[in-house]
Amino acid sequence: MDNNKFFFQRYGLTEQELERYLSAALSAGGDFADLYVEYQYTTSISVDESMVKSATQGISAGCGVRVISGERTGYAYTGELMPERILHAARTAALIASGPSKTPITGFKPDGARSLYPAMPSVDAEMSAKLDLVQRADRAARAYDPRIAQVRVSYADELRHIMVAGSDGSMATDVQPMARMNVFCIAKNGDGNSARGSAGGGGRVALDFFLTEKTPEHFATEAARQAIIQLDARPTPAGEMEVVLGPGWPGILLHEAIGHGLEADFNRKGTSAFTGLVGKRVASEKCTVVDNGTLPSRRGSLNVDDEGSPTQNTVLIEKGILKQYLSDKLSARLMGIPDTGNGRRESFEHIPMPRMTNTYMLAGEDDPADILRSVKHGIFAKNFGGGQVDITNGKFVFSASEAYLIEDGQVTAPLKGCSLIGNGPDVLTRVSMVGNDLALDEGVGTCGKDGQSVPVGVGIPTLKVDRITVGGTK
After folding, report:
1. If 25 and its partner were Cys, which of 33, 89, 404, 439 is the partner (CB 3.0–4.6 Å)?
2. Architecture of domain 3-231
3. Residue 411 to residues 242, 373, 406, 407, 439: CA-CA distances in angstroms?
């Protein structure tokens, strides 16, 4: 169904009604107002100890109203899509503004449609088919090795209808699917040691993604493999040394240590380590970093962002030179820079802000095997767990959930307790080799900022960093 017709038929949201709500939002003045209307279906299933622990379905709907007046923003929302509730939210958001009443432009100009998503969203599939996927993953993980002692599997999907209408006459609609599977394993051996492994993936995909591309057995085997390997891991040596980052998910370090610092709101406020550095060298000339929200079916991709602007492929760092920041409408207007289509929000209850989509480093020319052979003594970080970053100075600490020792160019013993400690802007200047094997993550990324979580993608090719402080256990 056309998304405009969806909201009209279900809630009577005509263009005349939208204009009335926007007029109420601008009744006390203000420079700009917009409405964000959302209707979302969700399903989820979890299995623990081979038993179905939960199976849920839900629907949520609501509208957020924003008024911008100078650098100030008023925001109010309602979880009831009834005219009196939306009008009340609009008048509440208007309290931030002062000045003569403004009238929104009449007649909306819908943005041109494009589709990065599948025609058949997974939320429409039978619950029994989703349960079968979860149970297949559980069986596969347990069959991998008798030392797998515990398995938890979850599956979740959603279908989100959105409409964004602005007082400047802009209008955009989208129907956004999402699906994700996760497998978590605990392995134990006869010595009483235990270790963990996890894997998962998905994206803006149909259910057949888990039947033909990345099966439940794929994720289960990967989670079990990680757990079994960690049973025999040795303590990590500490100190400053060469580090090789594996392709794909280790791009989370790039996302956290670099990406957040390139979001325009931090730079507008002067709180980022990258403030004022556009046009300056911030990385090795081997590094080109982009944020691309236009990749088909990827977890971080969107036809339009949560302000109704088309997403883009934005070059952030080109051959080491900082080119631009990631912006939303407010930051673009206040900073005099282009809107890159990165205004994102968790739901109608949240205000939009500049956020990443799919952030990754482009492939280089080095053979990954040559990169490993170039390291006499160092660390190969293949997978990452959690981390912390200070946006103001770029300092980070990341734990590597799967890491190995490199000795004389060979990957040898698995390591435990490995963490990487450094400074984001500084680390990029120490990148000396970039592999030709760019990979994106499997589709598990969720980014937090100011209490909001949104789905994202990350990726890198194999990278060699000449010096990073490794925090270890010996």
Report:
1. 33
2. 2-Layer Sandwich (3.30)
3. 13, 9, 5, 7, 20
